[in-house]
């Protein structure tokens, strides 16, 4: 096997081989390899994402709760993104789980704009899909720019995407942050337990259902990224919603020692939720 690998590798990649030592049959492959490198590092590829981020940032909102008598009155919970008529937003169901069942936690709000003082708008829950960890909200005020949804069924492993959100909340002000991410796997939502003790009631109920597929990302997300749109860097079309981060050690290490492995719910389930909400 080593001999085969060497014979394939040496003519193409060994810098000490001169041109006349190359097998002529390897020229098309070599040209393709060089073109791929040029495209990968081309500034035009970077420019596409720059333009897309500039276009979609007004559609990225913060999700939080508001309690007038508390200090501070605003509690940041996660990220969301605007859809459809510009007055609705998508986020994760777990982001608003406390507010959906307990009004003493404060009123639900979305935050828009940027800087030290974002605009706060009252919001209401229109539809919930707890199985797929999605929520549809409606907020007050004038319409905001909306993001378009793509067909998540067309996404393949190896696809390069991006996500934008508020990874550490409002610690440094209200400024959305963008990360690149590669679809490293399309995997069942249930992660295998290392032993029987890790199979709690919720996991067993999920196992009894037909496990749906989610995107595993080679990209670093943080707790504040929950609800962030996963989108195409060229078109800005949303293909998923970031909802989980793999933690290597203790929960406290998520910021200091991130695993670089994150997960996202395919956007086709967002389309189903919008239908439930009347769209």
What is the fold's blueprint, element by element?
Layout: H1 2-13, H2 27-40, H3 43-56, E1 60-66, E2 74-83, E3 88-91, H4 97-101, E4 107-112, E5 119-129, E6 134-139, E7 160-165, E8 177-188, H5 201-208, E9 213-218, E10 229-231, E11 238-245, H6 253-256, E12 261-266, H7 268-276
Write up this protein.
With 279 residues, this protein is α+β, with helices and mostly antiparallel strands. Helix content is 24%, strand content 30%. The chain is built from 7 helices and 12 strands. A hairpin with a 7-residue loop joins strand 1 and strand 2 (74-83). It is globular.
* Spatial ordering of strands, largest sheet: 1-2-3-6-5-4
Number of helices: 7
Strand composition percent: 25-35%
- SS-derived structural category: alpha+beta
Terminal CA distance reads 57 Å
Profile the largest sheet. Answer: 6 strands, antiparallel, barrel
Compute the number of strand runs: 12
* Unreliable residue runs: 1-27, 29-42, 192-196, 248-253
Nearest-angstrom radius of gyration? 22 Å
Helix content: 10-25%
* Chain-averaged pLDDT: 79
Give, in order, the helices and strands: HHHEEEHEEEEEHEEEHEH
Outline: globular
């Amino acid at each position: 096997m080593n001999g085969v690998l060497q014979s394939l590798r040496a003519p193409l990649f060994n810098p000490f081989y001169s041109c006349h030592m190359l097998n002529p049959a390897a020229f098309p492959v070599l040209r393709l390899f060089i073109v791929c490198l040029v495209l990968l590092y081309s500034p035009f590829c970077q420019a596409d994402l720059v333009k897309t981020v500039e276009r979609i940032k007004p559609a990225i909102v913060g999700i939080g709760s508001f309690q007038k008598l508390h200090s501070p009155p605003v509690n940041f919970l996660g990220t969301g993104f605007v859809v459809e008529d510009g007055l609705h937003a998508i986020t994760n169901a777990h982001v608003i789980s406390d507010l959906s069942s307990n009004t003493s936690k404060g009123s639900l709000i979305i935050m828009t704009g940027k800087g030290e003082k974002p605009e706060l708008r009252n919001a209401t829950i229109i539809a919930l899909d707890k199985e797929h960890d999605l929520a549809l909200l409606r907020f007050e005020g004038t319409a905001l720019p909306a993001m378009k949804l793509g067909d998540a069924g067309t996404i393949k492993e190896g696809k390069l995407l991006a996500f934008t959100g508020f990874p550490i909340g409002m610690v440094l002000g209200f400024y959305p942050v963008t990360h690149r991410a590669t679809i490293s796997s399309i995997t069942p939502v249930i992660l295998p337990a290392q032993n029987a003790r890790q199979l709690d009631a919720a996991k067993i109920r999920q196992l009894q259902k037909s496990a749906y597929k989610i995107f595993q990302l080679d990209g670093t997300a943080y707790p504040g990224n929950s609800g962030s749109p996963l989108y195409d860097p060229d078109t800005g079309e949303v293909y998923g919603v970031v909802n989980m981060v793999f933690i290597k050690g203790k929960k406290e290490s998520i910021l200091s020692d991130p695993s670089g492995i994150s997960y996202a719910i395919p956007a086709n389930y967002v389309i189903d939720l919008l239908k439930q909400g009347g769209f």
